[in-house]
TrEMBL record:
Taxonomic lineage: Archaea, Thermoproteota, Thermoprotei, Desulfurococcales, Desulfurococcaceae
Species per Swiss-Prot/TrEMBL record: Thermogladius calderae (strain DSM 22663 / VKM B-2946 / 1633)
InterPro entries to which the protein is assigned, alphabetical: 4Fe4S_Fe-S-bd (IPR017896), 4Fe4S_Fe_S_CS (IPR017900), NADH_quinone_OxRdtase_chainI (IPR010226)
SUPFAM superfamilies: 4Fe-4S ferredoxins
Pfam family for this entry, one: Fer4_10
Protein name according to UniProt: Membrane-bound hydrogenase, subunit NuoI
Assigned keywords, A-Z: 4Fe-4S, Iron, Iron-sulfur, Metal-binding, Repeat
Keyword ATP-binding found: no
Amino acid sequence: MVRVLKPVELIVVASEKGRVTVKYPYQEPLVTSDFRGAIRIDASKCIGCGACVKACPPNALELLESPERLVIRYFVGRCIFCWRCVDVCPVKAVVGTREFELATDRVEDLFNYTVHRRAECRECGSGFATRRMVEYVTEKSAVSEYYANECPECRKAKILNAVARRRGGV
């Protein structure tokens, strides 16, 4: 007897509440303010520090390095929309969106690239950080201005030489 009444109860409740869904895609979807969608990287703000890559649990963000350039690759197909990258970006270049309509029939459409040119070391000429990162560090810390345009190896060698000279070595 209970099984017969259950559908009747549901019909009564549904008629009292009315329609609770929208006719998607013909109507605007219900997206709450807490909803997390895909991220967007503003290439004009990004300095290429890689903090977002280190914070990404599913490795949806990758750092592709070559001697001339550094590329941040975002694969939305792997993203879990946790927005940790948004939280750690020092220049607020990574922003979260409410975008959720991400389906495509081409895998290439799921990749986004942010390309940076490398800064060249003034001592050895090798590429090390991105140019924007060097500018950012120099702007934030005037003390680093002297060493900002040198790669870590050349900086280390200079410091070791300076220490050796103080101790009466070289």
